[in-house]
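Exercise 4. Each item below gives a protein and its sequence. For each, produce the structure-token representation.

Item: Phosphate carrier protein, mitochondrial (Hermetia illucens).
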Amino acid sequence: MLFSTLLEAAQNSPFKSPLRTVYCEAAPSPATSEERSVLVQQPHIQAAAAASGDSCEFGSLHYFALCGLGGIISCGTTHTMVVPLDLVKCRLQVDPAKYKSVFNGFRVTLAEDGVTGLSKGWAPTFIGYSMQGLCKFGLYEVFKVMYSNMIGEENAYLWRTSLYLAASASAEFFADIALSPMEAAKVKIQTTPGFANTLREALPKMTQQEGITAFYKGLVPLWMRQIPYTMMKFACFERTLELLYKYVVPKPRADCTKSEQLVVTFAAGYIAGVFCAIVSHPADTVVSKLNQEKGASALDVAKRLGWSGLWGGLMPRIVMIGTLTAAQWFIYDAVKVWLRMPRPPPPEMPESLKKKLGLQTGGN
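Answer:
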């Protein structure tokens, strides 16, 4: 219900004059090209139609739904692919005495659990991050359109970094609520020896021991980890993409092939991912330790770990998150290409703002 309200608000915002859709059920269709031309020229009426070659209209419910699908595919698959590295990273965070380094962590895990031990937690990872991806990418597009319409075209350009930060933070707030139960189960499986080997074993045990709170006790530190991470992920990506096309790519985006555009997307995603890992790592360590220990609070865990302990496992996480973020943006953009979705170019200064700046320059 809440998601439907957000989608409707984004699509039908009263501030959304450039993209606003008005449905007139009783109005007859124009019969001639002259009549259609007059209709298009009306300032407050615009026909709802996808651009030539696109499968949907930008800002429509169909568009937002496909963005959510792209998020499921990009997040669910990529996080599942790096489960072995994630498992070792979590064990480095919660038991550094036993797992002394990344390579040592892999060696100990293989010796104790075999090759199959490296896949522990894959099911809650796939389910949890698919749900998170649906909300993260789908709602990001919703909030970005909604907030930009609220502040107007010129302010949306001038304050675009703040717009990306606000939209991504809003989306991640809901995404983490969807992720939290599966994240708790994943960490429990990966870091508590003998507790459970599968999701089907873990869920009833966690419910029996701690009740529903077992699945949401890590929600606040998850917000602390994921919201800064996602804000950096989207804002850094959007601005890096803009800078790459402006200063690095030797030709305009419109002249690049789809393959060339996807390469630029991957590069911008990897740069964003490195910063994401650094910004969110202390909270990630707390989440891993918190879900291992029953009855502990996030503050207790942070105090016990100390400043240096909060940065345990940073290097494998940089590798993991950098690769993940790049792959997610690549897959997400590739899904948009595959589904023939609108892919607006990096933002450009509105003509109205150019005129205002020109008047200011001319008056000096």
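Check: Residues 14-29, 33-48 have pLDDT under 50 and may be disordered.
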